[in-house]
TrEMBL record:
<protein>
    <recommendedName>
        <fullName>RRM domain-containing protein</fullName>
    </recommendedName>
</protein>
<dbReference type="InterPro" id="IPR035979">
    <property type="entry name" value="RBD_domain_sf"/>
</dbReference>
<dbReference type="InterPro" id="IPR034464">
    <property type="entry name" value="PAR10_RRM1_2"/>
</dbReference>
<dbReference type="GO" id="GO:0003676">
    <property type="term" value="F:nucleic acid binding"/>
</dbReference>
<dbReference type="InterPro" id="IPR012677">
    <property type="entry name" value="Nucleotide-bd_a/b_plait_sf"/>
</dbReference>
<dbReference type="Pfam" id="PF23085">
    <property type="entry name" value="RRM_PARP14_3"/>
</dbReference>
Length: 150
């Protein structure tokens, strides 16, 4: 399956209420009458959100268009997951006291980049930086302890 096909079949559920388990989510989102969904390929619970992958893009589209989903007397917020941009990386966990120059040096050393290959955009509080690359990285370009979160 292509990456575009996977993206079209994926739905994200935000702010998952406590007490909702994987089996209940499978049953609800596979029930076409209640959720608009259909057969699921996978359900992945990540803290207070869930990533659902349907077998068919049409099922994901119906779930997104339905708008109102209630499980355990709690309304669920569903959306299409944010697109992954191979030219943007998020560098998180930065101390607000770390200078932008230090972050620049770290990025250049860990990713083997020149200062013209990227742009750094700090968050207002300085705890993360968006790295906007002029072109996508090759697989061998990311150094040992640098992890990408799209």
């Amino acid at each position: 399956m292509s990456a575009v096909s996977l993206e079209e079949r994926t739905v994200e559920v935000l702010e998952l209420p406590g007490g909702v388990d994987e089996e209940l989510l499978y049953l609800y989102f596979e029930n076409k009458r209640r959720s608009g969904g259909g057969p699921l390929e996978s359900v992945e619970i990540k803290q207070d959100r869930v990533v659902l992958v349907f077998e068919e893009a049409e099922a994901a589209s119906r779930v997104l268009s339905k708008g109102h989903h209630v499980v355990h007397n709690s309304e669920l917020s569903v959306r299409k997951p944010p697109s992954k941009d191979p030219c943007r990386l998020l560098l998180r966990g930065i101390s607000p006291y770390t200078s932008a120059e230090m972050v620049e040096l770290y990025v250049e050393n860990m990713m083997d980049l020149n200062d013209t290959d990227y742009t750094l955009m700090p968050s207002p509080e300085g705890s993360f930086f968006l790295i906007h690359l002029s072109q996508p990285l090759s697989k061998g370009q990311i150094g040992g302890h640098f992890y990408c979160h799209a």
